[in-house]
Amino acid sequence: MQDEVAEVVANALRGRDVTHVAWVAAGGSNGGFYAAHYFMERECATVSSHMYTSNEFVLAPPAYVDEHTLCVICSMRGTKETCEAARVAKELGAATVALYVNESDLTRICDQKIAYESIALDQSRTERVNSSVALMIAMSLASQVDSYDHYDEAMYAFDVVDGIYRKAFARMQEPAREWAARMAGERTIYVMGSGPAYGSAYIFSICNIEEMLQIDSPTINSCEFFHGPFEVLDATKPVFLLLSVGRCRPADERALRFLRRYGGPNVYVLDGMDLGLGELPQDVREYFNHILFSPILNNVYMRALSAATGKDYMTRRYMWKVEY
Amino acid sequence: MQDEVAEVVANALRGRDVTHVAWVAAGGSNGGFYAAHYFMERECATVSSHMYTSNEFVLAPPAYVDEHTLCVICSMRGTKETCEAARVAKELGAATVALYVNESDLTRICDQKIAYESIALDQSRTERVNSSVALMIAMSLASQVDSYDHYDEAMYAFDVVDGIYRKAFARMQEPAREWAARMAGERTIYVMGSGPAYGSAYIFSICNIEEMLQIDSPTINSCEFFHGPFEVLDATKPVFLLLSVGRCRPADERALRFLRRYGGPNVYVLDGMDLGLGELPQDVREYFNHILFSPILNNVYMRALSAATGKDYMTRRYMWKVEY
């Protein structure tokens, strides 16, 4: 996978000076780009990184998109507006790479493609899900365009992250069951996170809690919390905080202190250190928050909440059923 | 104001080649930069635009920030982490501009400063609130660095937008009262918007509904709605949709069709055309969505909801009361 990604990036760079990378997708696939985008902004000064939900990219494409832009576009099965975004990117001259599970117009339109494995399936390998492949693209891009001093450690981290996930998957079953038992019957669950874990918080809200279980779930950035949202906190409010590992951890810790002081027993914290992030090399572990948080949230916490509420997580009101 | 802004931008550009602009603030001030950021991405190919919540900028500053970056940093009264962000930006060599109401460390740290007027006060002029000043900076920057063909029309729009706001303020009182009467007693109100109006949706959620009235309020991008959040919709769910004017309107219209079909009487739509956006020149009106939506939401809809719920909108549990 690492060689495949490095080759795709090398192909995209051949004969073009890439100054921008745009990550384009919808919903969970869009949130799945967050780790790659966060990495690019912190480690690559020469390529500007930007994220878009597909339909905004289609309707009002950024002015900079031209042959110096790499567009990485993700859809599991070829979401209509995401295919359209690929068409727009290509027309504007960008290099295009599709991330996909099933072939579709997306893979037919893009210059290159990389298959990924669905995060929701237990047999999928952690380093092969969409957010991992995107992060690998970002690291490869940074390494080939500038230089990325910790590239080898990062690739080592991809080698071992699946084993770390499997252990965390087993270890978090019981804490997740306890959390879910307490949450059953709640109508709103806030999810908080910051920096490298914010994308995981967003996906947990919109894909797991809202889409799969039909429970309201605002996502709040731990830093923004103190500038508005914290006023909703009382002794009963359900809040799920992702405590990230790395430079933004103090922002999450500040939120946690406040939640512990003014919130009540429905405040829950999931610490990235408890997921095994500390086992990854110091200089790269921050960038793997999303890579461990997201599958644990999807496959342990969401499933536990589904079991506790007695609601099958394949329940849908609209998806697969009506036109939209 | 327009001359003052143009001069500040010219000063920032003197002797430096600006390749990036970073908009840095917390909460409502952060959301207030959305119009400027949206404009930059669509109209200025040569300067990359990025938004950050202050504390993330402090803890994990972007790699690109150096003397080729313009940092525009906003805080009404000198929010602690926003002042710290200004210090970090300055240390990294960026040109710094403070937007402020009261002088503070922020104005002492930054190279330059521009005073703005609070959106919450009826006597403030629409073209002088923080989001207007930021948009004016963006337009001036685009015009001075590249060229912005519609600069004169945009400045004309700033000349007339306050009059348009005053008329909308009067016209929307009754619709807002009706909406608020229906919402009184609801515990969760979704706010939806996209593209140039997304920042207004975010601020309405976190500052008006959550902070001032302590009601839960997830913000959903109209494009992302179909990829998760729409599964929470039923015949009773309260949803407030901003129908933007410009290229992203079809995304909001698609969401509206779905909301009308599967939602119920608690679905509400506020159309930017009803606020008078159609009175602004065709080529620039899209960029003024935020400039009209935000004061109408803050000063008409929020106040109406405050009256209908009998909750003083100066009610706070924590702000001004406890340390955090």
UniProtKB/TrEMBL annotation, chains A, B:
Record PROSITE patterns: SIS (PS51464)
Molecular function as annotated in GO: carbohydrate derivative binding; glutamine-fructose-6-phosphate transaminase (isomerizing) activity
CDD domains named among the record's database cross-references: SIS_1
Secretion signal span: none
One annotated GO biological process: protein N-linked glycosylation
Gene3D superfamilies hit by this protein: 1.10.10.2240, 3.40.50.12570, Glucose-6-phosphate isomerase like protein, domain 1
Recorded coiled-coil stretches: none
Domain (SIS) ranges: 9-151
The protein's name: SIS domain-containing protein
